[in-house]
């Protein structure tokens, strides 16, 4: 359980936090460190980010927040998410997200910052943040779906299937779940076969011309989450979720 790193030319970072891969605050930092370790290895030419279990990622562990006094768990989770999302984006080699089942909340932050996304045929993407009394990762959802759909998904908390993202060109392909990891490794191997110096330069250049500063944009969103917690709306929404209401 936790985060596993398999090193090599195609490194694999695997998330496993049963039952639904809702990461505790420290889990996000563990994920960021694993990605950093992979990035620091000169042998690494591409990274596959995947998960074991029922889905790719259900976001933060809300129950951890509700059983912790004060705001420390919330602050730790927000810092952890920011660190993990940045580790994906700033990885000096391409990151391929292999998404299965649900990709929600913080999962969208990871997938949206990846260079490529391959999904299983049961994968869905969504931001339930409004129902949880929080905001965030619309920055990353905007990299996966058109603007008006992003707004609809934020306001309604609806999910969108991976097959729709293929139409938008933001998911490379949809494959059966049993072939997901192999499909991600196949694309990663294609990239790893290129000149690594050129690929790293390509990643740096593409980040340099990105029209959105994803770190600053996400931090702006987080500010509203803090505001919702100060006025009590965040805690009320999280408690409704914990109580199943």
Write out key terms for the chains shown.
single chain, 245 residues, alpha/beta, 2-enoyl-CoA Hydratase, Chain A, domain 1, six-stranded mixed β-sheet, three-stranded mixed β-sheet, 11 helices, 50% helix, isomerase activity, isomerase, Putative enoyl-CoA hydratase/isomerase, lyase, ClpP/crotonase-like_dom_sf
SSE topology sketch:
Elements (H helix, E strand, L loop, with lengths): L1 E5 L3 E7 L5 E2 L1 H16 L5 E6 L7 E2 L1 H5 L5 H19 L4 E5 L2 E3 L1 H8 L2 E5 L3 E3 L11 H4 L5 H10 L2 E3 H7 L4 E3 L4 H13 L3 H13 L5 H17 L2 H10 L3
Parallel strand pairs: 2-4, 3-5, 4-6, 6-8, 7-9, 8-11
Antiparallel strand pairs: 1-2, 9-10
Helix pairs in contact: 1-3, 3-4, 3-10
